[in-house]
Predict the 3D structure of the following.
Amino acid sequence: MCGILLGLNLNQSKFDFEKTLSILTHRGPDEAGIHHQDNLLMGHTRLSIIGTQNGRQPFVSEDNQILAMVNGEIYNYHELKESLVKEGVSFNTESDCEVALHLYAKKGISFLDELDGEYAGTIVDFRSGQIHAFRDRFGVKPLFFASNATGQLAISSEIKGIFATGVVSPEISPIAIRGLLSLIQVPTVFENVQVIPPKSVLTFDLNNKGYHIPEASRYWELDFPKLTDNSDELQEKQIGDYFPELIESLEKAVCKRLQADVPLGVYLSGGLDSTTIAAIAQKHTDNPLNAFSIKFSEIGKFDESEIARRTSRHLGLNYHELEVTQQHILENLEDYVWHTELPCPNFSGVGKFMLSSLAHQHVKVVLTGEGGDELFLGYDFFRKDPDNYLKWGNEDHETNNAPKTRKRNHEKTVTSILKSIGHVPLEELKIVLSNGVQWFYKQLFSRKSRATISEVDVFEQLRQRHHPYETEDRDELTKTQIYTINNLLENYNLTILGDRAEMAHSIEGRPPFLDRELFEFAKTIPNQYKIDDQQSKVVLREAMKHYIPSEVYNGHKWPFLAPSYPFIYGKNPVMDSLMDRYLSKDALRKLGVFNHLTVKSLLLLQKLFANSDKLTLQLSAALSVILTTQIIGIKFKEEFD
């Protein structure tokens, strides 16, 4: 795992760029490498995992015409390297990522088809005058870019790297914030900063003198089975017929991610996903693996530490536990948001951020459970009855008893969603995209921000996060699964619960559930074997029955959550300080995104209705987004403006 930063036409010396690159040191504290050639600067900070003694990047071809930087892991590098050596290729390092340079030299950008792993990278080809920026199939590793009218271009593992180059300045996008509030996940909330999409490569003109508008292409597709693909063979298979291949695929996925020249461990909760990974990893490891878990001692319903502790004993793991209080969460919130670069409706990710700090004391690599819910239909919303998708609410009596005006508004919202993306993936979208809720969200913003928001319809924003060819001729449940992978997984789980929370403490997270081969097999398992009216992830649960403790096997899905905190003065001195600094009238006007009178009203409502759990939760979610947006906006302006 590493940090990469590419700058074109920056007018910086190699010495200046070295200082710029230092903003990414947390991603790679072991060593840094810089290459300066013509109008190009490339910098790399390295977290040594494989080939710890000689893996410095950027990689440079013998004729200096091809340069490559890669962040991440390529698990099939042994086979790829062996094949290249037979063709006469000489390697200069032991790094797994060097194969990218030589494969590109042989095959061009189609080399991405052969990579198995989690990665993001850039390749500069002076022969063709092109810069290629690419990202792995699910977006486990991040990569962003920005350019300006003078032809300057920056590509970076984190957005702060782009701002450090001075190519653009940090400005919060009200449209992006509106999207987050409306359950439309976005990769960045900054104006003029864009993301390299997962499973894609963007190609830039090395000699361009104005704004860089890259050519985009996708080298892989989710390609879920279509309704017309159901063969007689699949119809005849029983759930147990899938167990042997599923277990074999899981073991392969985990074993790939056990490749490392440094200590590694696992994150462990009381859930099926992390327990599955831990059980298989320990089975294939000679010594007890380090396992890391959180204890939320103040609020029991969020605490899974007892189950995690018993699971650890059952599997023979070396257990480490971090006790987290409300005070700890609030004290770490600013640092967490600085690293994740995304606002959030709750503070769950802060717990993961702190857990990574604990892991850093013992290991460099941690196997994680991200992707299990998306792959095996683990979330509660997957169990909605598709027949009820277009009704008001989920129950017949709600449809019959709803006021006519309410039903008409509801039907209008559903019609707009269908027109935008052709299906309703989440029931909650019917609420958050309704006229009333959208009007409320609009009141949160300043007058200037409201004008900006009005320029882009929220349903157009939804459409931009959708790829119609991925959902065409798929059943409703699969459409929701695709929506979840492209939105929740990519821009939430893999960011604020994944890479950014982990790399803040120089920890590389590896998610076996997002293994390409495992995914290709799992998507062929019929949905009826993944989910039923009573339980989620059925096929995974049954296949792992004899590998995991019975209480985990019998358990229900419980998402990784930290307690929500009411925004009420006098409850906690740290929260008081955060609200004083970021939610005051001066602070809100300084950033200029939100309406200070509306925010003041929300704070008052939270105090007045403190005994209403439902309203407190809703108000806390809105205020959390506002607070964390304010933290990001103000801290980034102070650092880079």
